[in-house]
Design goal:
heterodimer; A: 254 residues; mainly alpha; 10 helices; 0% strand; B: 246 residues; alpha/beta; six-stranded mixed beta sheet; globular; ABC_transporter-like_ATP-bd (chain B); nucleotide-binding (chain B)
Chain lengths: 254, 246
């Protein structure tokens, strides 16, 4: 949906609220009142953590995804099998159970190994999102790299480049143009899934809305506001992705 | 330095069940210009691709400048550094400028400085007569220019042998001669060359050994004079008459 329709949607929701004032109670986030304004600030303050968790998780996912994708391109069968096992396994785990396992289970494993690595809600969320997303990132890398014609690898080999040099100087710079738009798209998935971090106590957008619902008991207004917060965030990212695609496309034509 | 630049002895190769190379024997001496022709699917490209290990042979011996091709990575690297290759589809790196295409190998594989590599690259771009295109991207050049850049890219590695795999087959007719001219001048300078091509005018001019392949076998080989005027095998006669008619 184009960004320019957003104000219209907001207006519609607010007007429909005014029209049937018996079910809506927008006072809870009315910026003209002191308590409403405090509530709005409380809700929006979760944005920082949502963005931070998503960005760090995406960075890890991009790195892990590449490491997972490279064996898939090997001549050696067992390396390809390792890739398949990782991708199929990680891809089939629902995010919430994985989050519980990382947050509640992983510290027990660390402890049994004599390691004292506490996992706080922030890193629990980051690790889970990064792992979960890395299976998809790996597939994006694989198809992107495979889309570069074999002749490029052969030409690189015939001018004496090693495997690592071929990847670094010839294949990845070309693949990245095809990989970046779907990777950026995948970032939207991370942003949305970061809402699950609320259940392990991370103070992000969803957690904040939940806490306010408990004290104010206005779920309809507060969750509407929450959805709009994600909507704004994702629309901004989408606009960024489209800008990136246009730029990459223009570059490709040169 | 071995006198025989390339030796293939009893080389066989299969793609799955398909027997692409059948008992190939070939000796190329320093300075030899060998031209391989034959119908498509005859295995001529595969022969060339085996020499720098873009394809793996399953039996027989291939030696390049005295070094045998095995799974030994160091041997493969040594051989590839001595063998240049020009592809039908050019295979230039589209994300790099012409100059960067040429300096990548010398800098990364040979350890030259950027300045040294650039000097060398410009020398070979002048050799193929397009130094003025150095800063362009490959896609901005014509097919003939791209193939000349590809030849220059191979030359910057200063190989002892050059392999050409149908270098003019993807070119528009009016661009073929500019590429062949470069190849002729290379031959005149004494470069050892193996050329897979259907350009029989070029073959007559430069080849000192002609090879005709069909069905994965070397059916006929020898100096160009008897090869063109009195081919012994029926298959070779038929092939030559088909491509020389036009």
């Amino acid at each position: 949906m184009p960004v320019k329709n957003l104000p219209a949607l907001l207006a519609f929701l607010l007007l429909s609220g005014c029209a049937s004032s018996d079910i809506w109670g927008w006072y809870v986030i009315d910026p003209t009142t002191k308590s409403g304004w405090i509530n709005i600030k409380f809700l929006i303050n979760g944005m920082g953590n949502t963005i931070l968790i998503s960005l760090i998780a995406a960075a890890f996912s991009i790195a892990i995804g590449l490491l997972v994708a490279l064996p898939a391109l090997s001549h050696r069968r067992w390396l390809r099998i390792i890739n398949r096992i990782y991708v199929e396994f990680v891809r089939s785990i629902p995010l919430l159970p994985m989050l519980f396992w990382v947050f509640y289970g992983l510290p027990i494993i660390f402890k049994s190994m004599g390691l004292n690595i506490p996992i706080d809600p922030f890193w629990g969320a980051v690790i889970t999102l990064a792992l979960s997303d890395s299976a998809f990132t790996a597939e994006i890398y694989r198809s992107g790299i495979q889309s570069i014609a074999r002749g490029q690898t052969e030409a690189a080999q015939t001018v004496g480049l090693s495997y690592t040099q071929t990847m670094r100087y010839v294949i990845l710079p070309q693949a990245i143009r095809r990989i970046l738009p779907p990777l950026a798209n995948q970032f939207i998935y991370i942003v949305k899934m970061s809402a699950f971090a609320s259940v392990i106590g991370m103070q992000e957008l969803t957690r904040r809305a939940n806490e306010l619902v408990v004290s104010e008991y206005r779920p309809l207004e507060l969750y509407t506001f929450l959805i709009l917060e994600y909507l704004v965030l994702v629309l901004i990212i989408s606009a960024g992705v489209r800008w990136l695609e246009r730029r990459m496309g223009a570059d490709e034509r040169n | 330095m071995a006198e025989n630049k390339i030796e293939m002895i009893g080389v066989n190769k299969w793609f799955g069940d398909f027997h692409v190379l059948k008992d190939i024997n070939l000796t190329v001496k320093s300075g030899d210009r060998v031209v391989i022709c034959g119908p498509s699917g005859s295995g001529k490209s595969t022969v060339v691709r085996c020499i720098n290990r873009l394809e793996e042979h399953q039996s027989g011996v291939i030696r390049v400048d005295g070094v045998e091709l095995t799974n030994d990575k160091a041997a493969i690297a040594t051989i590839r550094s001595e063998v240049g290759m020009v592809f039908q589809q050019f295979n230039l790196f589209p994300h790099l400028s012409v100059l960067d295409n040429l300096i990548l190998g010398p800098m990364k594989a040979r350890g030259l400085s950027r300045a040294q590599a650039t000097d060398r690259a410009m020398h070979y771009l002048e050799r193929v007569r397009i130094p003025e295109q150095a800063d362009k991207r490959p896609a901005q050049l014509s097919g003939g220019q791209q193939q000349r850049v590809a030849i220059a890219r191979s030359l910057t590695m200063e190989p002892k042998v050059m392999l050409f795999d149908e270098p003019t087959s993807a070119l528009d007719p009016e661009m073929i001669s500019e590429v062949l001219d470069v190849m002729v001048s290379l031959a005149q300078d004494g470069m050892t060359m193996i050329v897979v091509t259907h350009e029989m005018g070029f073959a007559r001019k430069v080849a000192d050994q002609m090879i005709f392949m069909d069905g994965g076998e070397i059916v006929e080989s020898g100096p160009p004079e008897p090869f063109f005027t009195a081919p012994k095998s029926g298959r070779c006669q038929k092939f030559l008459s088909q491509i020389l008619q036009h």
